[in-house]
Write the structure tokens for this entry.
Amino acid sequence: MNIVKAEMSDLQEILELQHLAYLSEAELFGTKDIQPLTETLEDLIEEFKAGIVLKMTDENNRIIGSIRAREKDGSAYIGKLMVHPDHRRKGYGKRLLAEIERCYPGKRYELFTSSRSINNIRLYESVGYKEFDRRAVDDMLTFVYLQKEIYI
């Protein structure tokens, strides 16, 4: 598997992967009305311009994973870690996370996930992220915020 910075021409394929990968997250809430599934190509282009989008490709050069981040005030805000459902539980999420961290050396890393996403929380904690906040969005949705600080 190869991880490199995505190009503008990759964004449609990444968005299609995102819509597929986040279906399992939507099932946790019984609705497809979640931001990763409603994001448009135009929204993704704006994120692309504001930060870094990485892609993981397989031996056939198909995108099977992606992650993105942007920096603000000394922190790298990481989002949309996704791996194709057929390629999960192979360590690819950890590899993508490590690679996006390398793009922002010496920074504080922050990300969030749903409190219902136990597997996501377990993954993040296994690579050194620690919960520092929880925020209820509504009766069904609470975001768990995690951070990882690098001490040099």
